[in-house]
Amino acid sequence: MALSYLNAGGYITMQIGAGMGGFRVTLTIKGLEYARSLDTRLGRADLWYREHKDGLIWLLITVFVSFVTTVVTN
């Protein structure tokens, strides 16, 4: 299940039946870059921001609108 998720995300490529009924997994450039980013705190923070960028922007917009509404109504 986890390997199929990584394969669908483009992080690895899988070949079933490679060789004598074996199984072959190859890391892609995208997977290597992702693994390299996970090695540092700044890299993990960057990955978190990329994955949650849309949600973070809408959260900030909501807070801003709430603040403006409070200031205008008082």
Structure in a nutshell:
With 74 residues, this protein is of the alpha+beta class. Helices cover 68% and strands 18% of the residues.
List the defining traits of the structure above.
68% helix, elongated, alpha+beta, 74 residues
Task: Describe the protein.
With 74 residues, the protein is an alpha+beta fold. It folds into two domains: 39 residues, no CATH class; 35 residues. 68% of the residues lie in helices and 18% in strands.
Layout: helices, strands, pairs:
Blueprint (H helix, E strand, L loop, with lengths): L1 H8 L2 E7 L3 E6 L1 H9 L3 H33 L1
Antiparallel strand pairs: 1-2
What is the rounded Rg?
A: 21 Å
- Give the helices and strands as they follow along the chain: HEEHH
Report the mean per-residue pLDDT as an integer.
84
Strand order of the largest sheet: 1-2
State the separation between the terminal residues, measured CA to CA: 54 Å
